[in-house]
Amino acid sequence: MRTACTLLALTLLTLPSPPALGQNVLRELHGEVFSIENGEQAPQFFPNVQMTLREFGASGLTNDQGLFRIQLPANVLSGQEVTLRHDKKGYAICFPLLGKQLIPADLTRPVEIRMLPEGSKLFWTHERIEEFIARTAGESAKKPPSRPGEANDLSAYILELGRHNGFTADEVRQEIGKWMEVARKNVTDFRRQGMVAFAEKNFRLAGENFRRSAEEMEQQAAKKFRAGAADLRASAADRELAGDAFFNARDYRQALQQYRHTLTLLNTYKGSLGPLGIKTYPEHTVDVQRLTFKSANAKNGLGERVSGPDSHRYLEEAVRDYQRLIALVPRSSNPRQWAATQNNLGTALAALGARLGGPEGLRRLNEAVAAYRQALTVYTRDDLPQLWATTQNNLGLALRAVGARLGGPEGLRRLNEGVEAYRQALTVRTRDDLPQDWAMIQNNLGTALRAVDERLGGPEGLRRLNEAVEAYRQALTVRTRDDLPQLWAMTQNDLGGALGAVGARLGGPEGLRRLNEAVEAYRQALTVYTRDNLPQDWALSQNNLGGALWALGQRQGGPEGLRRLSEAVEAYRQALTVVTRDDLPQQWATTQDSLGGALWALGERLGGPEGLQRLNEAVEACRLALTVFTRNDLPQYWAMTQNNLGLALGALGQRQGGPEGLRQLNEAVEADRQALTVHTRDDLPQAWALNDVRSTGDLEVNHASRGGMMREGRMKFLDFVVREAIITDLQATTKEGAIREVVRSLQDAGHFAGAALESIMRLLLGREEIGSTGVGGGWACPGANCNHPAVARVVGTIALSRRGIEWDALDGEPVDILFFLISSPKRPADDLGAQEVIGRHMKDDRFRDRLRQAETREQVFELLEGADQGNP
């Protein structure tokens, strides 16, 4: 407050003489504790009250006159804030606000600790409300910059004040509202109008008003001499408030300018003390440290808002500022400030890590995790629950980013730690007390759970996906379209992603229901994310909508499936009207890759020139994506796109025939092989399996190998499935037993001599040792990529197990559908065609369900005939 600034300036005139050199002076905080419930003129002093400094644990007991002494650590500075706690039941400290006491320059003078009964209306003076708003502005600017989509919610500060003074949050808001009605009338007091605007969360207007108030003070200071020093100090306070307001408005550039201006004013003020006969400015060090901290926060925010080299420069500057502050302000002297700096350092490091690739980016992310964990050694759940919860949320974000970068068990471990950090935060950030923060963390939890599912697969992964759906739906109970439309749309978008993933995992009607819910969630988001108002968010939602429609189209047959695939293609193309290669190269490449996948699926359904055109467009879209997704810079995306390119080229090659078709099939095989250099079994087993089930090992495609059945175009089931070898009730209960039973059935059907049985067995079992052919979803394809001279062409069959067989499948589940293949070394391309038709139909839930329901060899064969004719 302005009054406080004036009092501070007057206090400086009577500073005691410094101790003689070498003199050992005991540093103590002196104070007196009294109640003002009977008025300021009739204080009631409290004896036997234990007063404690929360930061250091030091305490002192009041005497009969309410006086106490608390020993201070030697390195505590004048102007440093400490928190006073007491054991006087039924009372709360009303001054200093929230018990936050600044260490005075003159430690011989007692500080006044004024108290009131909890719930007393005397708490609500205009002066105290304005002090609370100013403090809220200052404290909110000490937090890390808000992330995109996060609202500036001041509820935590209101809740803290209410709990401290014995009121509910609603009662605090009512009292602030009463003050605002009066304060609005004083239109010429820019400082007070800034307070009103800040309370209304009109942060930009608040910043403008605080700046105008500071300019008035500076003009007055220029006209005065002795009184001008006080005006400079008051102006600095308003400049700092302007910076705090602009920080909350996310105008970090303007915030940084105001903080720098404040530092200039304080240095000018310090320089003016000599002519006044004042030799020191004891609080200068603490003031500079505070403004350096806030300036680092503004740089942190700028680094996240701008792009290119400027982004890295601002973030690196913020990191260096935080690290210098940590060195200057050790934990022993100011533990809370040290922890706040560690927390914000973590935010800057995480932002840097997200922008850097390779080992350097991962190093920065790990440093962010370490910084947050350092902060949590001070921010404990018992002492500082809200700060603890905030830092747990930040830790969850950093751990999720690290887990996304790492493969294998270590990446999964970090992702699970991220989930646990969010769940810890939710034990404090509850829906009743802090609904918006609670919803934000629920949303973050959902995203982390989705990332865990991507690594786990199987029933455990599905469980995490369903938990993610529930987390997003919980968030939507607070983030409503009417109150928080953009946050509502963001969570609808995330919910659509989780529902789409569940739908892709589940078969039958339930899977279709979830996919339709995903489409609806994306369309809901698009009612807020419009192309005119929020083009980037609109484009992202269009892209996601395309993914859900693509999955639906793959599930549904006939005209409905074709319609969904066409809608998917259109959604991706809509996204590309906003997402360009120049402005957003990675997002553009992702959308091109997705468009290629949808065009491939559509081309597979369509016949004639139209289908051929769509397949050619699919190849072109994937190749465009690969101009951005390179193996060195973005290996996972590059491998994913190589995978999709292989699909499109394979389908195109089989459709076209002739030398051109041969060339495209060769290119398809090469694309799969390239993907497998990144999609390894250890790091990304599900992606590896999808590639490996199509990859053809040492395939050398030539014109002769594409004779016979491939000459007519796409291979069909009836081209390779041996009807007489179909088994509908497999008796074997082990992998080896199942392979032997099926190979013998092919031998009995006359497709190779008995002498070849054991060598074929060794070939197939050896293939399983390299990696299981169980791709998840209850089916496997033993013999894929295996050729043997005992057969003249690719032959295969189907075996159904009524009990299920353990197959070391990727999802850990038994398999009950087995497609067996053995191809000829003279015709290796036939194996590719057979795998393509198997993979295409086994993605269809209805096809798998009907296959499982088949009871006789004839029923299985009729189903295959129908699939060949386009009637699954």
Structure commentary:
The chain is an alpha+beta fold and 872 residues long. Strands 1, 2, 5, 7 and 9 form a five-stranded mixed beta sheet that branches. The radius of gyration is 35 Å and the shape is elongated. The protein is 59% helix and 8% strand. The chain is built from 30 helices and 13 strands. Helix 13 runs antiparallel to helix 14. A hairpin with a 5-residue loop joins strand 3 and strand 4. Residues 1-24 and 679-713 have low confidence and may be disordered.
Structural class: alpha+beta
How helix-rich are the residues, as a percent range?
Answer: 55-70%
N-end to C-end Cα span? 77 Å
Low-confidence stretches: 1-24, 679-713
Shape estimate: elongated
**Largest sheet entry:** 5 strands, mixed
Helical segment tally?
30
**Proportion of β residues?**
5-15%
Mean of all residue-level pLDDT scores: 85
The radius of gyration computed from the alpha-carbon positions, rounded to a whole number of angstroms, is 35 Å
Count of individual beta strands: 13
